[in-house]
Amino acid sequence: MLKGLSSKLRESLEKLARGNADKEAVEELLRDIQRSLISADVDVGLVLELTESIRRRASEGIPPGVTRKEHVIKTVYEELARIMGEKKGDVQIGRKKVLLVGLYASGKTSTAAKLAFFYKKHGLRPALVACDTVRPAAYEQLQQLAAKIEVPFSGEKGEKNPEKILGNALNHLREDVIIIDSSGRNALDAGLIGEIKGINETAKKSLREGEMMEKVLVIPADIGQAAKAQASSFHDALGITDVIVTKLDATAKGGGALTACHQTGAKVKFITTGEGVEDLEAYNPEKFVGNLIGFADIETLLEKARANLDEDKAKKIVKGDFDIEDFYSQIEGVSRVGSLSQLMDSMGLGKMASKVPDMDVQESKMKKWKYIIQSMNREEKASPETINPSRVRRIAKGSGCAESEVRELLNNYQKSKKMMKMISPGKLKRSGLSGLFRQFGMK
């Protein structure tokens, strides 16, 4: 997600974490942030506004119990979240009409189906209306998607008046959520503005008591500098209430999404992360902005980890004080959360993970390691450093594995122990990531 922008910001923040976070270091960080955001197609005016705000806040008093580095990193996160939305997407589950607008190739039609699938999962009855009278095959695409997710579909193939199509659809549809797919253009011209205004008025006139009207700008993350003008024009025409950011699975940029949200005053409600109808998720600032700056969704990661890891053993692992059985049990648990390299990358430790070979342990290898550990005696399990060549031969024979596989396990154990001592809680705190360890009760 946002790989290009994320990697640039990550490098900038890592440089700060390694330094003293003095005024000169902060200014260097701000210059790096400016270059990163501009190269990611964020509007220049917005970049200057963001960096000035970060500069001002970074120079203010540091809260008690927080290092200067943590304060600066937290400020960068909060300022980006302020633009994108500081709260999770406010998805109201209730009766509503949802008008999707955007230019060609923004992903409106597939997003319409994803929204319908989302609301259906949440117990509502959605319906899809095809009001895109311009793009060839738009009618057929939405019709097929509606059939795939088994929701009602309405449209009039060949009809060129979208207001008439919508009016006729609303005369017979009684579903809870009516999702309207509108036409796009290569550019936002007077014809498109007039068309979406007409659709909006038709939808508003049909609103029943207690029913909501949402006007959603669907904008691809790779839109670039055109985002500012597009967002402004759509907002002036309709009064955009929400933004859905699409194509986050493919883009190497993402600054257009920042610009669109700032320009309209609307916040991101959903993001799409793939082509499937299930690849839609409510916007989560911790996850989205965390990925943006290179410190991914630690909270979600920890929730998954707690379900699979033994917390007492996790404390031993983190402190570098663990035997080979602890090592195996935690590796086994982590494998159910994700690969070790993914886990460390999500913690902002991707570079360190890359220095340790064989981080991603295959399932077949895990089975062999289990047999090897079972063939060790109590002393060897508690103190693997006592395992000499003759013990390696005995363990290999008892487990039915090669001696090289026994040595590989021991090598991974020793390297992992050394690595965890390198990222002890004290060092992690100084690098600005102490919150992760506080989650495990370690100061």
Descriptive report:
This protein is of the alpha/beta class and 443 residues long. It has 3 domains: 3-84, Four Helix Bundle (Hemerythrin (Met), subunit A) (Up-down Bundle), CATH 1.20.120; 96-289, Rossmann fold, CATH 3.40.50.300; 298-438, Orthogonal Bundle (434 Repressor (Amino-terminal Domain)), CATH 1.10.260. It has helices at residues 3-18, 23-39, 44-58, 68-84, 108-121, 138-149, 162-172, 190-205, 227-238, 255-264, 285-293, 298-308, 311-319, 324-337, 340-346, 350-354, 363-374, 378-382, 389-399, 403-422, 425-430, 434-438, and strands at 96-101, 126-131, 153-154, 177-182, 212-220, 242-246, 267-272, 280-282. An 8-stranded mixed sheet has the order 3-2-4-1-5-6-7-8, with helices on both faces. Helix 6 links the parallel strand 2 and strand 3 (153-154). The chain starts with a helix and ends in a 5-residue tail after the last helix.
Q: Rough shape?
A: globular
Strand line-up of the largest beta sheet? 3-2-4-1-5-6-7-8
Order of helices and strands: HHHHEHEHEHEHEHEHEEHHHHHHHHHHHH
Question: What is the second-level CATH architecture of the largest domain?
Answer: 3-Layer(aba) Sandwich
Low-confidence stretches: 297-306, 355-360, 424-443
Rounded Rg: 27 Å
CATH hierarchy class name of the largest domain: Alpha Beta
